[in-house]
Design goal:
Elements: H1 2-39, H2 42-59, E1 65-69, H3 71-79, E2 90-94, E3 97-100, E4 108-111, E5 119-123, E6 128-132
Antiparallel strand pairs: 1-6, 2-3, 3-4, 5-6
């Protein structure tokens, strides 16, 4: 009878260990999926590019020109069916803020501190953004 109890106790411990491993693996898989989903959403790239453009404008001197490649924004906009003749991924600066959009539903705006009114042109062929002050 003592050996039967030990056998049942060992089976119970083994079952609990296997169950713990399965639950842990499922939780790690869910966390990994969530992190990869959040990292690949449009809003992350819209925020990054809006800040990058606004900070570039802030550091520019009058009469200078900067060019940056925004191919990732065009890829996201094409994926969301947002590219067309009238659609812009970077909207004109209004009230001192830069707005980046890759879909009709989302967009991110970031304010500039510069008093200079820059001229932003987008070349859809070379997928570049040119800022002139």
């Amino acid at each position: 009878m003592i050996s039967l109890k030990n056998k049942k106790a060992k089976e119970s411990e083994m079952f609990e260990t296997i169950l713990f491993i399965i639950i842990t693996a499922v939780l790690f898989a869910m966390c990994f999926y969530y992190i990869s989903w959040v990292g690949n959403t449009n809003s992350v790239f819209e925020e990054q590019y809006a800040k990058k453009i606004a900070l570039t404008i802030d550091k520019m001197n009058p009469g200078s020109q900067e060019t940056m490649y925004i191919s990732k924004l065009f890829e996201l906009a094409e994926k969301n069916n947002y590219i067309g003749p009238q659609d812009n991924v970077v909207l004109p600066i209004q009230n001192g803020k830069v707005t980046v959009r890759t879909s009709k539903k989302t967009g991110y705006s970031f304010y500039t501190f510069s008093t200079i009114k820059p001229e932003i042109t987008i070349d859809k062929v070379s997928k570049t953004l040119t800022i002139k002050t």
